[in-house]
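For the sake of transparency, this paper describes our internal protein records without simplification. Because each token names a local backbone shape, the row as a whole describes the fold. One such record is reproduced below, unchanged from the form in which we store it:
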Amino acid sequence: MDSGSGHEGRDGFLPPRQERSREVLRRVLASAEHVLGERGLADFTMAAVAADAGVSVGAIYRRFEGREPLLAAVKDLLLTRLEEGVAGRLRDARPDLAGVVDAFVRGYAESFAAGRRVFPDLLGGAPGTALAERGDEALRTTRALFRAAADPHVGEVVRADPETALTLAWQTITSAFIHRATMPDGIRDDLPWDVYAVHLRDMTLAYLTSPGGPPPAA
């Protein structure tokens, strides 16, 4: 989340201008993430966040107009980590299709593992809201990152329509992580996220390197 200037009044958030205020904001966001993970969305209150951060409720309201802008800020923080984590993994990926897919799923796994208790409450959002729009932005960003890294290796894809196959690979990986994060305990598998990523990588590569599927549309 941008803590600099230029966003005054937008989406119910007033950015700090001094370093001391920026430090308070960092504490508030860390506490908001912690409270959401420990108590869930139903019991997420400004008072609980203030108590966890060791600041007054008024100090939070000086930056956020209410609960929803604060939740949007937490979502932005988590999704920024996801985008940066995926980008970093892909920069260091082995220069072949398997290396790209491996880096991509590991970037996702690291972010979902770190935010596993809060992602389920933040992945939604009513259409047109800041929560939903930020999620859509993250999807577009990760898709662009994946395609930029995978496109140079499209010759390794043996499906009848390699371009569509790469799009479906990104879509399937992303959907799988989101779906798993929202599944309740007792139904979801108990694998660590990094192990889950290996299984998903292998399934994705098996699909991309197996012949089949309809040819590209004319």
Q: What stands out?
A: The first helix runs from residue 19 to 39.
